[in-house]
Design goal:
Two copies of one chain form a homodimer.
Chain A (H helix, E strand, L loop, with lengths): L18 H14 L8 E2 L1 H8 L3 H14 L2 E4 L3 E4 L4 H21 L6 H20 L2 H17 L4 H13 L4 H5 L2 H19 L3 H11 L2 H14 L9
Antiparallel strand pairs in A: 1-3, 2-3
Helix pairs in contact in A: 1-3, 4-7, 4-10, 4-11, 5-6, 5-9, 9-10
Chain A binds a DNA duplex through helix 3.
Chain lengths: ~240, ~240
DNA sequence: CCCTTTAATATTGTTTACAATACGGTTTAC
DNA sequence: GTAAACCGTATTGTAAACAATATTAAAGGG
């Protein structure tokens, strides 16, 4: 007998995050921060030991990461960390640009100062981390900055999609971060964006958004070609 | 001991689709075609019996459908079919318009006639199905039409993202399909799109793409408001 | 008569064991 | 000496049993 779930109770979710999601995030973090290299195998039992859980949740997590495009799963053989070809990177960045520009176009102006202040706070963190060479904090403060910025657009679907595509290429940012001038340029971009927000100058914000997306894929592609040659059209991995 | 997977063998995947994916697709189809109503419960064991498999795969499938936004999963209570609020629908369609317009903007012209012929073939199917009142075939031929059309853009990430968002709102098309004039209008839109493709008239194609996306959300929102009142800002479900 | 507590049961979440598969190395046939 | 067949092991895929949780229904106390 199936018992109904009462409509009134649905919205109050107990807010406890499923274990599989947490594991997926941890593995994802490892991948995008370069702690796990492309082509490295992800063996279910090893991950169980590592995260103190059972294979069911690990399988769920790997399944999700496959859908996200971060790992490749081969039937009966297992999962491995997936790298991105220059072609894929270019395509993802093209779509990101379209969506992020859309987001800043529809942000309702003027923006509530409390959000601008939040951005400034994050930007201070970011700058301090850059100065200290703390790449982990650089990564996370940068992440939060963009989440707050695009969150201003108010379209939940758009925010979610931007997030989705950003996740796919988290890993390649480290290539640009290797050059101090890239980090500094990103820092200045952020400051200019805040100024544009304050002044409700939408066109400036759009231009900055476009410019901000350029260096990372370029650095990645250059590094890739130095390593593997100019094999743009090679299949993924 | 973990044994490496040789690089050379990776691309040749055995092409056998994981069971969980197949099940997810079947359930998705049931939902979007209205065979399962919003708020209906999806009990794991029932689905196991139905699809002749074990709970592991079913859980995987439900997990994926949750990520896609088609079902809601409440910890320790199970999964249920999720409906969409008018706000969500509007937001999704806004992003769809942006992406689909981007796609037709970057289609390399002129288009190889063989693809145009494929579109015409699908359109004949669609027209016949509309005339016969065969809504299932209407659905699938329409689906293929758009897949082929946007597939022309050549950006795999863009194609995938368009597909993702289209899936989220498959279900609501039935609302527009209830009105014969909507079906007829969609049919004429498709024919005009084919003509624009043949003539490499990009601006026409862009305008048609925008227009083509209007009726479905409007019909859904009207139906929703007739049923629940104008509660736009209500939380999901 | 209503509110709280308690038990029964449906359902999900976890654990474990087992079967199927794939790869590496070794043996065997020619 | 080479190539095909075989076996061992690592790993994934499947199944079933068990534990935890939530919901309904019933019992008890005010």
């Amino acid at each position: 007998m199936v018992r109904p779930i009462k409509p009134g109770q649905t919205p109050v979710s107990p807010a406890r995050e499923p274990v599989a999601i947490v594991i997926a995030k941890r593995i994802e973090e490892d991948i995008v921060l370069g702690r796990r290299q492309p082509r490295e195998r992800l063996v279910e039992q090893d991950l169980c030991d590592l995260f103190q859980t059972h294979r069911g949740d690990v399988r769920l997590a790997l399944f999700e990461l496959e859908k996200k495009g971060l790992v490749e799963r081969i039937p009966n053989r297992g999962a491995l960390v997936r790298g991105l070809t220059p072609l894929e990177v270019r395509e993802i960045y093209a779509v990101r640009e379209e969506l992020e520009v859309m987001a800043v176009r529809i942000i309702p102006f003027p923006v509530d100062p409390k959000y601008v202040e939040r951005l400034e706070e994050l930007q201070r963190q970011h700058t301090a981390a850059v100065a200290a060479g703390d790449l982990l904090t650089v990564f996370y403060s940068n992440l939060s900055f963009h989440q707050v910025l695009f969150g201003l657009c108010g379209n939940a679907c758009l925010i979610e999609t931007i997030e989705l595509l950003a996740q796919k290429v988290y890993g390649i940012r480290s290539y640009a971060n290797a050059f101090p001038e890239s980090l500094d340029r990103a820092r200045r971009d952020h400051l200019d964006m805040i100024k544009a927000l304050r002044g409700s100058r939408r066109d400036d914000l759009v231009a900055l958004t476009r410019r901000h997306l350029k260096p990372s894929p370029e650095a990645y592609i250059k590094a890739y070609e130095r390593r593997f040659g100019k094999a743009d059209l090679a299949p993924a991995q």
